[in-house]
Xylose isomerase
Amino acid sequence: MTYFKNINKITFEGPSSNNPLAYKYYNPEETINGKRMEDFMRFAVSYWHTFTGEGTDPFGQATMVRPYNKLSGLDLAKARVEASFEFFEKLDVPYFCFHDYDIAPETDNLSETFKNLDAIVAMIKDYMKTSKTKLLWNTANMFSHPRWLHGAATAPNADVFAYAAAKVKKGLEVGKELGSENYVFWGGREGYETLLNTNMKLELDNLARFFHMAKDYANEIGFDAQFLIEPKPKEPTKHQYDFDVATGMAFLQQYGLQDVFKFNIEANHATLAGHTFEHELHVARINGMLGSVDANQGDPLLGWDTDEFPTDLYSTTLAMYEIIKNDGLGTGGLNFDAKVRRGSFDPEDLFHAHIAGMDAFAIGTKVAQRLLEDRVLEDFIADRYSSFTSGIGLDIVEGKANFHSLEKHALGLGEITNKSGRQEFLKATLNKYILEAYATVLK
Ligand code: XLS
Ligand code: CA
Ligand code: CA
């Protein structure tokens, strides 16, 4: 059966194309940083928003028109698999991601849930034999069902902890079966609402115990995927334990897990934490912990996780600047953890949304690559810190200075002269590069 009937394979037609169902800037064959764009960007479709999401919000019912809407249970799950592989092929996308709960129905009986999962995983494996689309990461949904209302690995109830362990154990087996390149741990409800009823120390100790057990089991079964923590500051709990990259790093170091994990950084989670997307990417990068990216964007007027498709070229440019400086994402990729708006309910909107996101990142990549080639920010920053390359500055950096030598230096100084940070000039330069990229691309 064909699910997306009026849509042909999406191809690169270039910026002058007026075909809405074509890539204008994303050319999988073009070279970025010595790699084909497809291999460098490693775009992924997220199963939950694209195939499982129904368009509900706290005030309204489902709006999405989908060809499999009338089905339920395992029939629905199977139809979604068929539709998803048709979608991957038509979009020509190299990766996808899912939660266990997205692909197969959960019941109140764990063995039954596992059986459902086995049936769908077998079907996906079959499809993957003839598809180019691979699994970027899988994860376990431990936040939707009421059993997780107080958390999973940080729940105050040991039975819930055990249930969570069983789910992740299965998730690691599924990841291995499907050749997943990463395994994601997003905090879900791992956080708290009020200290009046919370033993934070025990909850954090338990979370670390859980992660160690997960790694032990992955090693035991020979599943060598990169483990990723996905920080988020709030929502669903008021205080999420994996607030941001810096908080996550402190936790990993405290519990001896720093070599086990890298970070999966989501744009909308960064802004919820009061950071920019590029701040989170930068903190992870300079610490060698940038693993993968959930590519989306929030809405500055709304204070929650809106998971919009990324179209802001400043954001994609500055994100790709970090990613190119990181020499790509290794086993990670750019996963569209993004959903079409409630009002964009046609199946065709799923294509428009992904095309918009992929083109926005392709433009960002081109601009970032030029900025780096011309060493626009690099040279400016090097000059700004040049006082640390000789004299007393070099002594500081090389560990040769102490408070005696620094006092002596300071006493010999006249008035100190500072240099301008030239922020407005640099922003104008960024504008120039974005506009020039268009001009070159368009000519
Ligand atoms: C929710 C998260 C979630 C993770 C995977 O806000 O983004 O979807 O990416 O569990
Ligand atoms: Ca995410
Ligand atoms: Ca999100």
About this structure: The radius of gyration is 24 Å.
